[in-house]
Every structure is written in structure tokens, then in C-alpha cells.
């Protein structure tokens, strides 16, 4: 997978582009894949070629992850240090909006479809919101086990009483760099990564040394703990339902039934509540990252949905 670099706001953004496999050079379409927390563009290693049947496919590393720059985090009420950023869903969505205009659509208008896994799903929804407000709505958003963000303060009342009472202390602790750095070092080990993957991939499919290194390598780079610090302090940011209720474009959802972190019941509630959600497909036996765990099952679904998305865009 070739790595390309795009300069954004003084930062280096790593991405890859897979050209249409049918040899087309100008189709006016593109697909953008957005990874989840702790992952990178390489997490789409088993999907990009399949999705690029007749349109180019892009996968980009969000700021702070993968091969992209990892600037210092700046939390609310902290001084503005040169080069620091407020990590969050508006920052990442703006990154993708600019990526669409400066890279994907640099030579002319493009009909875009977004595919996001985990927090990449929330980023994709927020990107779709921003693009829609700019008069350039994407053709479709596909969510794969979208992050439900149950620790956000807006969902605090749903937590057990003990969790509610301890939240102020937790929030104060995770602001401390020395605490976050030690926590990050604990997780940034091969053994810890494998333990997390064992939960995330219940079938064990495609959990190999290549995947462990894919997740581990960026965590060894300078500044890697800063995006982690920014993320664990996102206690008041966008929730998927807030975004879904604002979108007037097709959204389709794919969910691993055995996802240990994002309950299927919440996804079913979204399907029943929001008119933009066209379809929810459930994958028995699969977990939080079904696109990587079982691409042979997921890719045909994604390809079919992309065709539906292009058809919806033509009819619109």
C-alpha cells in the first residue's frame, strides 16, 4: 500500500489512494474510508481493492494517528501552545472536508461516499454534516460498528450511580499527562494489543502479526500519547444520534453482533428512530471491526451498498 502525503495546516497527513480496478481514469466518484481509534489507513488492508471496482478509494490517517503528524493536545482551559490542537470530532471532520476539496476533488466535482468504523463513523457523520452545510452533501455514509460514546457527559444519566459520582475525579485524572502517558505505555505493548484484539475480533479472524504491528508501530512515534490524551478527554463532543437527526442523505449500518463495546440494541434504536438510516445489517459471530475480521463477508455487502449509494445520488 503506497503512502502519500498531504500537508494540512502545517501538519503532514498520510493517506493512500487505490485507483479504479476497471482502469477508468475519470468517473466523478470516490470512496473515503475512515479508521477508528488507535487504528490507521492500513486497517482497511483487506477492503480497499474490493471497494475500488469502478471508482478510486481513499483511506486517510486522522491527525494524531497512523503516519500522520501527532501534535500536542490542548484541552479546554489550557493555554494555547504553538502547534497544539484541540483533538475532537470537529477537528477530524474539518480535516476530511479539506481533504475532499484539496485532494479528492482537486480536479473537479466528485460524488463521494464515506465509510467509517468506530469513531471513524462519528467523524464520517460529522464530515457529512459539514459537507451538507456547504452545499456538497455526500451520496451516502456507511457506518461499521459506529462508536456510541457512552462515556460522554450527555449520556451520564445512563451510567450506574457509582460511575456518575466518580466522573468528576476520572475527568480530573485523565487531564494529567503523567497519568495518561503511563496508561498509554501500558496499552502500547504487543501483549496488550493482542489482548484487545482478542476482544474486538471474537472469531479470531485475521488477527496476525501484521495487524499487531499495524496498530503498534504508530504508538512508538513521538507525540503518539498526545492524541490518546485528547481522545480520552472527549467528554462533551458529538454523539452519532445528534448527527443522524441532522442528515438528509442515506446512511447504512453494518454491525458485528458480538461487538463487545458497541451494543447492537443501540444500533437498532438508531435504525428505528432516524429516517436517514436506510438499512442495518447484522453480522453474527463478528465483533467491533468486521471489515478486517471477515472481509470475505463484509466486502460484498459494502460493494452492494456503494452501488445503491451511486443510484440514490443519480435519482436525487
Characterise this structure.
The protein has 316 residues and is of the alpha/beta class. It has one domain: Rossmann fold, CATH 3.40.50. The protein has helices at 48-51, 89-104, 119-133, 161-173, 177-187, 190-200, 209-216, 224-232, 240-244, 264-273, 290-293, 295-315; strands spanning 4-8, 11-18, 29-34, 57-60, 111-117, 140-144, 251-256, 277-283. An eight-stranded mixed β-sheet has the order 1-2-4-3-5-6-7-8, with helices on both faces. β7 (251-256), α10 and β8 form a beta-alpha-beta unit. α2 crosses α3 (119-133) and α6 (190-200) packs across α7 (209-216). It is globular and about 55 Å long.
Read across the widest sheet, the strand sequence of neighbours is: 1-2-4-3-5-6-7-8
Give a count of the beta strands, DSSP E runs of length 2 or more: 8
Indicate the CATH architecture. Answer: 3-Layer(aba) Sandwich
Radius of gyration: 19 Å
Mean pLDDT: 94
Proportion of residues in β-strands: 15-25%
Instruction: Note the run of SSEs as H and E.
Output: EEEHEHEHEHHHHHHEHEHH
- Which structural category do the helix and sheet elements fall into? alpha/beta
- CATH topology-level name: Rossmann fold
Biggest β-sheet, characterized?
Answer: 8 strands, mixed
Domain module count:
1
Our measurement of the CA-to-CA distance between the termini, rounded to an integer number of angstroms, reads 35 Å
Descriptive keywords:
40% helix, 316 residues, alpha/beta, eight-stranded mixed beta sheet, single chain, 8 strands, Rossmann fold, globular
